[in-house]
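Below sits the subject:
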Amino acid sequence: MRDPHTVAAIVGALRSLHGDDTARTMLTNGTTLAVVIDALLRSPITNRDAARLMIGVLRSRDFIVTPDFSGTWHVKYVYENPKSLNVVDLNVITLDRGTFASTDIRLSLQVH
């Protein structure tokens, strides 16, 4: 594992919300970033830490991210309301393929 902290946090959040068997299936067969974000936001960690993990899972080489964002990409955070600092979602903006919502991004844990 290249980033055990991020993997452990994602696995823990999914297990807490969905149970061991479902979390294992999600990580093996793939799930959307939206599902991971939902699990992180419902976990007992702070919103700030959840937002960091949202980016961490995209950067981590422990997860297969589809579509592949190997080129230049940026994140646009979606906040609870315009004056809030509570992140509730994110979009990935690429220069060559446009914007992807968290529901359009799939993640699966790589087996090393």
The chain has four helices and six strands. The longest strand covers residues 87-94. Residues 10 and 62 are 11 Å apart (CA to CA). The mean pLDDT is 94.
